[in-house]
Specification:
Layout: E1 6-9, E2 13-17, E3 30-34, E4 42-45, H1 52-62, E5 65-69, H2 75-78, H3 81-88, E6 91-93, E7 111-114, E8 117-123, E9 132-136, E10 141-145, H4 163-180, E11 184-187, H5 196-219, H6 223-226, H7 231-239, H8 248-262
Parallel strand pairs: 4-5, 5-6, 10-11
Antiparallel strand pairs: 1-2, 2-3, 3-4, 7-8, 8-9, 9-10
Helix pairs in contact: 4-5, 7-8
Length: 264
């Protein structure tokens, strides 16, 4: 498998990979520069970390920028948003007002139009409460932030993230992929996914499989263990026994979301 380094995709997308690789960000944060063919101004999605060399590379790729959009508030996506927008003389649009620069937010159903480019906003809570995806009808693709990753699966960041909302969001993306015959997913981390429907099928089945594993793990525990404050970690040690313990902290967030979902 070749290393993911970003690049140009479709007629409207260029991914500038941030140099912030770690176990949670995979190869780093994907900053997406979107521009209509022949258009002068760009939209920049998730400027990423405040690393000068990265922001210089994004500016070189983008040229004039009409707006910065955020898929969600997590630091590795949003840290440089205000800094980059001020540099480029534009606003930051986000669902969470705390991350905006200027008066315009982003909401489900919005369409952001710049020089013929159309970006349709989809509310897809679950990974976080403020998670958004962006559908580009011109290229038949969806930008998913951390809702769907280019490699592996994402964390439902409980308590801000909620499993029920996440499952609903995956179903919504699946319907979009089927109805619009999406060509690809452009994720917030990892490589572009060329088969959107298959990836979403996997994500949905994986979540239901994990939920069944958590239920099975609970059935093996004593009443004392099930009522313990250590229950999430106990379940992680059973369900994620084949996963590197370095990742158990992230897994515990998802387990807490699963336990909350099962307790409804």
């Amino acid at each position: 498998m070749s290393a993911w380094t970003g690049g140009s995709f479709g007629e409207r997308g260029q991914c500038v990979l941030a140099p912030n690789a770690n176990m949670m960000t995979l190869d780093g944060t994907n900053t997406w520069v979107l521009r209509e063919p022949g258009g002068n101004r760009s939209i920049v999605v998730d400027p990423g970390p405040s690393i000068l060399s990265h922001l210089d590379a994004v500016e070189e790729a983008s040229g004039p920028v009409a707006a910065v959009l955020l898929t969600h508030h997590h630091h590795d996506h949003s840290e440089a948003a205000r800094e980059f927008a001020e540099r480029m003389g534009c606003g930051v649009r986000a669902l969470d007002p705390a991350y905006r620069l200027g008066s315009e937010g982003l909401h489900d159903g919005d369409v952001v139009s710049v020089d013929g480019l159309e970006v349709h906003v989809l509310g897809t809570p679950g990974h976080t409460a403020d998670s958004l995806c962006f559908y580009l009808p011109g290229d038949g693709v969806v930008l998913t932030g951390d809702t769907v990753l280019g490699r592996g699966t994402t964390v439902v960041a409980h308590p801000d993230g909620q499993l029920g909302a996440y499952l609903d969001s995956l179903d919504r993306l699946h319907r979009l992929a089927a109805e619009r015959e999406l060509a690809a997913i452009w994720p917030g981390h990892g490589p572009v996914i060329d088969n959107a429907l298959a990836a979403l099928d996997y994500y949905i089945s994986h979540r239901h499989d994990r939920l069944a594993q958590v239920e099975a793990a609970l059935a093996t525990l004593t009443p004392e263990q099930r009522s313990s404050d250590d229950l999430p970690r106990t379940v992680v040690e059973i369900v994620y026994s084949d996963v590197d313990p370095v990742l158990w902290g992230a897994a515990e967030l998802s387990v807490r979301a699963q336990l909350a979902y099962l307790a409804r």
